[in-house]
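Bench notes, afternoon.
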Amino acid sequence: MIQKVFYNSSLPRAGSTLIQNILAQNPSIHTTPTSGLYEMITACRGIFTEGQEFKAQDKTEMENGFRGFLKNSIYGFYEKITDRPYVVDKCRGWINEYNLINEFDPKAKIICMVRDLRGIFTSLEKKYRSNPLQEHHIANFAAMTGTTTDKRVLHWSNNVPTGPSLDRLYQVIQDGTHQNILFIRFEDLCEYPDTEMQKIYEYLQIPYYQHDFDNIVQYTHENDNIYGIFGDHIIKNKLKPLKNDWDNVLGQNACNIITENYKWFYDAFKYNI
């Protein structure tokens, strides 16, 4: 029986798949690849909000019923998938829905992996350069957009996969919701894995499990062809410190664009510039 569903709503290229597979070493935790439940839940909210039949009935009664529907939908979904008592559902959208989750499942827990944005944009640029046979629809010489590394940084700032996630993150910091969310820096996880994992268990309020960071088995699986060149959900089986190569890949000007445009991020997560 599912005791509690938790949520992983991390930045792209920041170790969200890795943390899912580390957590899955614990036989009490089922973790997911990128989940579609967020889309289902928010779609149901739209139907509930606009449906005439719901509007025609007692508002309090309908809202109570909808809370039960949402919780039983998520918990019932995983009851048919796993016999592990805890679930960590991964989707970038959850971070903006803390209040919604808390409505139907109080004491909501959301984990968000973050990473120095220069590292994230470096990872995207590497993916872009390493797939020359694919049309990425990023560089457009007619419109003069995405034609240089600097311009691609600006493109990813305002488009998937990074733009929406950064907007969501900015909003939860602005409205104070971030105080209910556990943020783990990817760099810290790689450097001090046991310390960071203990933070996660303390936050989730479940018994600690001693993980093996030198033998991480792939537990989650998804078809990366669905996501194009930026789909990369195959993990390395050993945790190693990250290397910062953004100066060589992005160049100083692009790095300056990132740190200047996202000063709020560097202040919030105390990254050195």
